[in-house]
Each structure stands twice: as C-alpha cells, then as structure tokens.
Task: inverse folding
C-alpha cells in the first residue's frame, strides 16, 4: 500500500484535510507533516520536512499546499533530488509526472476548487514517468 507525505500552511489546511480524507477513502495512507489548524504559519516549516522525507526515500511522493502553491514549491525545490511541480490543472499534473518525473505535487489552494484538486492528485498518482528522452533532461536538473 502506498503512503504519501503531505503538508501545507494555514492557507492549505482545509485542502490538506480534504485530500487526506479523499486518499484514505481510496486506500492510500498519508503522513501528515502539518499544519494542524488554520492558524497563521510559515510554509517552509512544512515544506522542508515533507521534502526531506521524499528526498530520503521515506515516501515515494509528496503533496504540498499553500495559498498560491509557489512558496511550498520554491522551498521544496531547494532539496536535492526533489522535483516539485506547481499544478493547477490535470494536464500539468500529468506532464509533471510524464516528462519531469515530479515527486512532489504543489497545489494552489486559493486558486482551484477542492474538486479540481482531487482530480489533479488522481492524475499525479496515476501517471508514470515516460523516461526516454526525458530521462536525459531530468538528470540535468540537480546542481
């Protein structure tokens, strides 16, 4: 059974809770790295632990959520081996996995619906990396 790392700040709290419930209903377990309320927080405090857990291969994939998705995405991408992708539609989610081998999905809670977020998560989890010509490109991402 797959287990995912998930986290987000106060702006992503409602989405995170809904996505955890949705994934659990589908038989996918989650490790919730916080936040645990809608009280104001700093997104790096949650993006770093999720990213480290994925980087250290404790979890195959992660999900991060903040208001715009940008803050958690920028933070996550500071970690070697992390390929975090900010996705606001299903096609971007699929392409992030197919072409970029993204291992953390970042969602913009203030710009999409929870219904769309679920579809984006489904696409992210259902799509595999194509490899081939994309493998060469992905191998050049790290510094």
Result:
């Amino acid at each position: 059974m797959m287990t995912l790392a998930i986290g987000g700040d106060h702006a992503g709290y409602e989405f995170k809770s809904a996505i955890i419930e949705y994934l659990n209903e589908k038989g996918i377990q989650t490790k919730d790295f916080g936040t645990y309320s809608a009280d104001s927080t700093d997104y790096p405090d949650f993006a770093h632990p999720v990213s480290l857990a994925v980087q250290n291969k404790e979890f195959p994939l992660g999900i991060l959520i903040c208001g715009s998705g940008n803050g958690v995405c920028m933070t996550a991408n500071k970690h070697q081996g992390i390929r975090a992708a900010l996705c606001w539609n299903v096609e971007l989610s699929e392409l992030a996995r197919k072409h970029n081998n993204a291992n953390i999905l970042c969602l913009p809670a203030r710009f999409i619906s929870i219904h769309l977020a679920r579809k984006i998560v489904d696409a992210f989890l259902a799509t595999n990396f194509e490899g081939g010509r994309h493998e060469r490109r992905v191998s050049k991402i790290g510094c």
Notes: The helical segments are 13-25, 44-55, 70-76, 90-100, 114-126, 133-138. The longest strand covers residues 3-8. The mean pLDDT is 97. The chain has six helices and five strands.
